Amino acid sequence: MEPDASMSVAARRTGGIVLVVLATLGIVSAVFVVRRPLMMAVPSCTAGRWHGCFDTFNGTVLVTVAALPLAGLAAWALASLRSASGVTPSWRMSLAEVGIVYGTVPWVWMILLPGDESGAVLSLVPLRDLLTMDTVQIVGNLLVFAALGFLVPVRFAALASVPRILAVAATCSVVVESAQYVLRLDRVSSVDDVLLNTAGAGLAALASRRWWRTAA
């Protein structure tokens, strides 16, 4: 193997390790910050009760954190299968696929939990709801499809561009907001949620720019 090729492989491997470490540190830090609310859901979740665990934000976050080892195991299994088949880069592809699911499904689940509005509310005026959102709501909306925006271009060369990521995120957000309204979940289906979800995915995509997959 040529020296330049060896250095390139080593650099990619190092970048992948750094990415995993940073993601793990981020999750651990977030859990530490919200540890007290999460502890409120422990009795219900450990007892396997739906109410108080899967139907609450705290319970969903707790289950997501508890599932982290399973996500790591799934990534390892996928990478091992790919390596055995000679598919490369096996680890990057596997981590990206598992990360997209692990980092997106819990957010979508929480969005589709019943809210406290008196019926389904549709808000189509841009920026009207944004002006009334608190910091937690804004940050939460930015994070909904952040994992998707960060990892999709790492996994799929065909989607490795900001406009395409924005289009994918906007489509997913519209589907989720429409589901909120159609299912009558007593939540506000807002165009501002779509804008924030899309913006979060776009910013996350820019953050992963150096790891984007390129066509062979």
UniProtKB/TrEMBL annotation:
Alphabetically ordered keywords of this record: Membrane, Transmembrane, Transmembrane helix
Keyword Transmembrane: yes
Entry-linked InterPro entries: Teicoplanin_resist-assoc, VanZ-like
Transmembrane residue ranges: 16-34, 59-81, 93-115, 135-158
Pfam family, one: VanZ
Domain VanZ-like: residue ranges: 107-207
Keyword Transmembrane helix belongs to the record: yes
Protein name per its UniProtKB record: VanZ-like domain-containing protein
